Records
---
Amino acid sequence: MHLIITLEASEEIYTLEVSSSMTLADLRAFIEAESGIAVDKQTLFYKTAILEEEDKTLSEFSMEDYDMVMLRARTQESNESSQNVHGELTAADQNAIMNDVEKVRLQMLGDQALCDLVRQVCSIL
């Protein structure tokens, strides 16, 4: 299957061919190899949730072909938690994710080849 990895705060998009039996830890290592962002600096979001269970497989996260995962690269200055005391995303982070989704949507609309590919994979769109 393929995953679309979008890098927050940039327009970089990676399409990775992965196995649904791959663990989150393996995905992080693959992303590091493709993007150069160290595993310990990655925060991954899928459907507005932070991915944290490293031994869980992609299929256990219910990921499907051409699903989108957002990658936030943490820096030394920005290591503050994006979760509240209950482990949930803060409202500001939820808004940031929605803004990123809109940014990707607009980028896709401007790229006819990418639109055609998405329509082939998911005709509902």
Note: The two ends are 19 Å apart (CA to CA).
---
Amino acid sequence: MAAERFKAMHEAFQKANDPGVYLSSKREDFLQCFLISCQGATSITTFAVFLCEKIEPALCKAVFERTARDIAEDVKSKFPDFRGNRANLEVCILRYLAEKQNFECFKQYLIFPKEFFQSYIERRVKSHCLDGSRRLRMFLESSLESLYGNILSAACLSTQIVKDRKDREDKISLWLDEFCRQLAEVISLPRSELKGIEHQEITDIEFLSSAMAGALYDLRDRLMKEFADADMN
């Protein structure tokens, strides 16, 4: 476990500080930025698709985190085990052990209480979410729908704020600044990750908003399909 964590830390350090590794990791981004610059009228659509590709991993992470919080709240409201403090949970566990009448379970509870607590909670959550009721999928879809609405609103609001600005010509850079600011409390999308596309010569900000709406809809639709096709048993 420690070796894996050290390896991940080393790779992250290399990616951030080794010029060769950093440039190699950005190769695809540089290519996409070049293609956007060469596409003329269709560059706005390509820009929106590229931005959504950057949004996707952050969106998925936020969906899973929100789903985990929602499940925790739902479990707390529906299971007496989790409504009170630790003492209440212990009473429920002891009742469970008494009903099970399995000495090995008692032994594990006494010798490895932390691991037993974790396995007990995991078992209860799985029985709640994976009971054939599609509950987990509904939690995921609800989280995705909510976050999709937040991102779409951020794109529209950024457009409204930036479209009439006359003091600066770099409207794409301004739009990205505002878009990332609007999303700060929604998903983790570092503005530094978008520097490669901030100098694109796109002036039709309202069309960009429309292109973003289409690209975001396609992203949401694809993720919804992935949730529907995923094996959640």
Note: The chain has ten helices and no strands.
